[in-house]
Amino acid sequence: MDRDALRPPPAPGMGRGLVLAVVAHIFLVLALSFGVSWRSTPVPASEAELWASIPVAAAPKEQLPQEEPQPPKPEPKPEPPKPQTPSAEEVQAQRDAEIAIAKAKERKQKEDQELRDAEEKKRKLDQQKKEDADKQERDRKEAQAKKDQADKLKADKAEKARKDAEAKAEQARHDANVKRIMGMAGATGAPNATGSALKSAGPSANYAGRIKARVRPNIIYADAGGTDNPQAEVEVRCSPDGTIVARRIMKSSGLPDFDAAVLRALDKTEILPRDTDGTVPQVMLITFRPRE
Length: 292
Description:
The chain is mainly α and 292 residues long. Among the domains are: 87-186; 207-221 and 230-288, 2-Layer Sandwich (Fusion Protein Consisting Of Minor Coat Protein, Glycine Rich Linker, Tola, And A His Tag, Chain: A, Domain 2), CATH 3.30.1150.10. It is built from four helices and three strands. It has helices spanning 15-40, 88-186, 207-215, 256-269, and strands at residues 232-238, 244-251, 283-288. A three-stranded antiparallel beta sheet has the order 2-1-3, with helices on one face. Strand 1 and strand 2 (244-251) form a beta hairpin. The protein is rod-shaped, with a radius of gyration of 77 Å.
């Protein structure tokens, strides 16, 4: 294979470096052995005793000069291996390794970021679910409270309506009893009467006959004879004392002369008799026939 010119050369073999290391250690051991051996060797010396008749002080003992210890020789430093230019294959391999490490690191960072994003998304989703559940619970409680309030208002309204109805019925019974009692105090009706007033508002049963008996003699009409006996209805209005203030034909008998004769008879009568209770109805509807 062709080598890349920019690629550093391969590293040298370990044999030469190992040999140099062994040689350096041998020199170091020798130097240490030499330094220890010359210090441990004893120095040769001799002693002699001299006697004399006259005491004489002995001369001081000869002191041999001591040799100063020599510093150990520095060990020779092994020469550093010369840098070798890596080959193009080694440079490419180193570059590929660095690229692979960078890609692996980037992929690891991307996976870690995706994991953090997934955890954050899951946390937000759980938080949203919790908030939604809380909101639904609040809405349910509010709806239940509104329903309970509406039911209470409805029940209160129904109870109030029932009480009002009972109160009105009780008041009506009370008023009816009062009227009945008051009517019984000064009533003028018959024992089997069912009314509640002091006296009857309408005319008595024979009052109409009495009026006709008063008006009939004043009717001047020549009956032509025949089988028909038509009826004329006259409305009569009176004052409280019975004076006739107005009269009119409400339903004609079909005989204009008879209708006119009835009206003239009412004008001639002027005052109608009073009823048994001493009153005269203000408005009356009286019927007349030619033959009665």
